[in-house]
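Researcher: Structure for this, please.
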Amino acid sequence: MVSLLEILPIITSGILVLAILTLLGNKKNQRLQSEYQIYARMIEARMNLENTEAFTKMAKESPFFAERFALVDTPDQFYMLRAYIDLFEFIFRVHKNKMIDDQFWLRWASAAKAMKSIPKFQLVWNKTKTVHAADFAEFIDSM
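Model: Predicted structure, token format:
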């Protein structure tokens, strides 16, 4: 008969391995959460800066922005549609990293599909999709 003292090192080694794996998994999850928080703040900061009269006035002098503003009725529409696209890409990335519930993801995917039915959204998407990750562009284009 095997005594508890003989198998105790095996049990404690197994618990130690599980604890290390859990720690590593948590560390990766925390890193991803931090990255997502930083990205969300960057999008918010860009929106706050671009949605000013001063920036819009300067941007209208740029052929790059003028071409994009011509796709919609106002610069605000362009900024809003681009913000939606960035939001969808952000949530797409969170979904790919399995950080949101599948039902929550389906709701956002449905919202993206509905937005794609808006002609101005489609115009902005076609003009800007090359700056997005290839897998996200494929996802939106497949809708």
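Researcher: Any notable elements?
Model: Residues 4-50 form the longest helix (47 residues). The radius of gyration is 23 Å.
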